Amino acid sequence: MSTTHDTWQINVAGEWRNGRGEAYASTYPATGEEVGRLHAASVEDTNEAIERAHQAFSTSDWASRLPHQRAEVLYRVAQMIRDGAEELAQLQRLDNGKPINETRALVASAASTFQFFGAACETLEETITPSRGDYVTMSVHEPMGVVAAITPWNSPIASDAQKLAPALAAGNAVILKPAEVTPLLSLELARICEAAGVPKGMLSVLPGKGSVIGDAITKHPLVKRVSFTGGTNTGKHIARIAADKMMPVSMELGGKSATMVLEDADLDHAVAGVLYGIFSSSGESCIAGSRLFVARRIYEEFVDRLVEGAQRLRVGDPASEDTQMGPLITAKHRESIERYVAMGVDEGGRIRTGGVRPSGAQFDKGWFYTPTIIEGLNNQARIAQEEIFGPVLVAMPFDDEASLIEQANDSVYALAAGVWSRDFKRAWKLGRAVQAGTVWVNTYKQFSIATPFGGWRDSGLGREKGREGIFQYMEQKSMYWGTNETPLAWAGV
């Protein structure tokens, strides 16, 4: 593994070299210090990687290997991730500033993802469909060829694994475009895949600006699918390009998730869950529970307890085992969050806690921000409608379930939601009425690689995870086997 302050190289179809794009540095968000330097990929690098990936797909045996043989490679990737787990977790901490306990969990998740899709690959079944004539009909699936994965900065290795593992399991060659500001984990993951036996040329990692590399990938005629996780505006831009190519896409985009606390909720569980849902990962999460609706009868008590809990959260050095919230990803992103909080105050909101940068020498060089709770606004306020992607919670009371459902669904986003209630039937009905790709009941932000994930409306298209996630990276084909004893009558033979 490369060490910090090294010059890193990009991976163009299995060849490690300097990119032909601009030189830049990956910096540690807690201190602003340089972690590693590299030259970004250029459009020329991108085109070369895609063309060589197409050649590797056509000439290597990866796509034609039996499923269990591809699975063996994915199992080795999983084991190698586990073997290097602590180094990988420390590298991700440096790359994007997440607390070390969180990065350890993300590394473990990535290993489990490769293991799951290895198992899914070798046990995947094709379908014999009901016959309606003198033939046997089958539905089979084939790899697409060259596919692309464009991943975000907030959870690099976990997001990479969720796209790479099923795409490779399906037999494809993959072009991975990591976020510009967090390239190091993706490059290290490519080294692991290479050492585990993924054939040369079947994987490239191309760091750089999305507006340059992402566009070049999406427009290239040899790229047969793009899976993107990131901002909604960028996702719509990719979708427009894809529409001209008639190319399928998967999109996991923004969110403004509603968390709903009913008057019969277990308040200890609900307070802990709401705090975790918005403030873990410093709120830099598409599924963050950033809109809170609380039954009016318990609103004051609940928000008071929430404020007390937020003030006890430990913001600080991501290297510390005790830290719960680390820094934000960049100074620019922190400034964006500060503008949103100021906007909320201008709209009539009251800051109950937070809303400032933490004080003290340990915070002076990093991009820290305190957990923030704002009330006094309604669901039409801009900070209740627009994704902030930071540790900012908007708390609002509700009077009845009809208005609660209406407000929860009044958003262009529909990625996730949370319901807190002791009444199973009530929670079930509310969970079904809320428009969202994922609904948690009496928990929040829990994930299973075996369960599909994705959003509705401006929160995305398609699904990742789940046993059938492999099919996102395959083309379906119908096959007919004639069983008739005589020639087709039409020919008159």
Number of helical segments with 4 or more residues: 14
Strand order of the largest sheet: 15-16-17-14-13-19-20
**Tell me, what's the shape?**
globular
Percentage of residues in strands: 15-25%
Secondary-structure class: alpha/beta
Counting copies of identical and different chains, the oligomeric state is single chain
Radius of gyration based on Cα positions: 24 Å
Biggest sheet layout: 7 strands, mixed
Fraction of residues in H or I helices = 25-40%
What's the β-strand tally?
Answer: 23
pLDDT averaged over residues:
95
Kindly report how far apart the N and C termini lie.
Answer: 69 Å
Question: In terms of per-residue confidence, which ranges show pLDDT below 50 for 5 or more consecutive residues?
Answer: 1-5
Structural commentary:
The protein contains 14 helices and 23 strands. The termini are far apart. The protein is of the alpha/beta class. Helix 4 runs parallel beside helix 5 and helix 7 runs parallel beside helix 8. A hairpin with a 2-residue loop joins strand 2 and strand 3. It has a 7-stranded mixed sheet with strand order 15-16-17-14-13-19-20, with helices on both faces. Strands 10-9-8-11-12-22 form a 6-stranded mixed sheet, sandwiched between helices. It has a 3-stranded mixed sheet with strand order 1-5-4, with helices on one face.
